Amino acid sequence: PKVFISYSHDSLPHKQWVLKLAADLRTNGVDAVIDQWDLSPGEDIPMFMEQGLKSADRVVTVCSARYVERANNGKGGVGYEKMIVTAELIENLGTKKFVPIVRNGDTPPVPTFLGYRLYIDFEDDAKYPTSLEALIRELLDIPDPGKPPLGTSPFDKDGRGEVIVGAPPLPPSGVHEPVETVAVEEATPNYSSTIDKLKRLISEPSHALNLHELVTPIANNARGALEASDLVNYSDQPTKDELVRRVYSMNRATRVLEHVLAVGCHWASDEQSKTFVKAVSRVALVPNPEGRFFEAWTNVARYPALRALYASGVAAYSNEAFGVLHRLMIDTKSRVRANEPELPLLLVLHHGAAFAQSYWKWLPGMEKHYAPVSDYLEESLRPAFREITSDDEEIALNFDRFELFQALVYGDLSGRESAVGFWAPLGSFMWRRRELFENVRKEIEQEGAAWKPLQAGFFAGSKQRAIEMVTALAEFTGRVRGQLGIW
């Protein structure tokens, strides 16, 4: 069946959740249509919605709190869709075309135009597979195997017989949880005891050795897991399944570490932060140039260190710990290849535009993203960032601000190292927070030498150099937006 997904663009995490739902539907035989895949820049949005709603066999309405509010108030695209849907409901009151699913936790759970239609509850992410199966069964019109078959009357023609109480168990139905086309990521385990101990050591420091003995084994375990696997095999042909398998394996290897790094680099003192920065360097693999597909896989080999840098960097930036950021980005050294000179970790990680390659769009749900690695990191590191704040909007803003700052620092470092034209690693800030450029420029001009990054040693302590980097990055970002058709 062709299924149109109606939802509101509440936030990036919500959009990514809806995109994952659409991907899971398509994997399981449902032709899901969603604007993130099927609407191109320049197309008529109202026409897309109208045609999508009318041509679909079924319509799934993702009822978030904002969706319900906008539908009930007739605002925006959701309000326009409501007009179309209401007209069809009036014409055919008994239609089952519209299937509400609920993601809002509020009352009412669905907008008034959907009346009293039975909805599927997607509130609890832990129960996502069960809810997804219920939705797919409804869309494919496959009955629930739990419904017992219809038996015969227990009474004969003379009225004698015995009522059967307690039906025998049904045989296995053969229905399993939907399986993704690539490796399945595990749920984030609970590291509360480790994090609680870490917070005590940071807030009540007795001796640096205690912190070292907690953090260093976690970093060493991550390093050991990365080196002991076949993740450093550069001879295999890169494929979607293999790339995702390696990425998920690397996520598992660094998962405890990234939670520790987020807490440590946000709350630790300047002296304590040295322990966490050393932990980041432990997962910076230096590949040997061997294997037919070395150039592709060596970028993937840098992914654990990038993940560690982001967990540390976003957390440090959110607390304006620019001394920690200087240690992470510049003072920590690594190599592009074995036997080559050491360079600042930031330059090594983004060498050759490592994370701007198109094959990173193989990551689940990132097929049409302009910055797939950035968006994937923001989503997958969110549990670690929640160790320091529960506000998702705050996390998203600090993530974008860190990435812009990372690009400024990279441009400054690479500009001093070579005469090649300006290039810097970009993230989603290039299209969703254009105001950040002007905000940073104003900060520098108003604060001058007191601007905290300058005091920490960035941009050689020069206000003029920092402003030049903002100008260069803004111009470069504008060119990239033009090439990608982002206006």
SS summary, helix count: 21
Strand share of the residues?
5-15%
Written as H for each helix and E for each strand, in order along the chain, the element string is EHEHHEHHEEHHHHHHHHEEHHHHHHHH
* Largest beta sheet: strand ordering: 2-1-3-4-5
List keywords for this structure.
54% helix, two-stranded antiparallel ribbon, 487 residues, mainly alpha, five-stranded parallel sheet
Q: How would you summarize the topology of this molecule?
A:
Layout: E1 2-6, H1 12-27, E2 31-33, H2 35-38, H3 45-55, E3 58-63, H4 65-73, H5 76-91, E4 98-102, E5 120-121, H6 128-140, H7 192-203, H8 208-228, H9 240-267, H10 273-282, H11 294-301, H12 303-318, H13 322-331, E6 333-334, E7 343-344, H14 345-349, H15 372-380, H16 382-385, H17 392-417, H18 429-432, H19 435-447, H20 452-455, H21 463-484
Parallel strand pairs: 1-2, 1-3, 3-4, 4-5
Antiparallel strand pairs: 6-7
How would you sum up this structure, described in words?
- The protein is globular, with a radius of gyration of 26 Å.
- It has 487 residues and is mainly α.
- The longest helix is centred in the middle third of the chain and has 28 residues, at 240-267.
- The protein starts with a strand and ends with a helix.
- The chain is built from 21 helices and seven strands.
- 36% of the residues are buried.
- The strands form two sheets. A five-stranded parallel sheet has the order 2-1-3-4-5, sandwiched between helices. A two-stranded antiparallel sheet has the order 6-7.
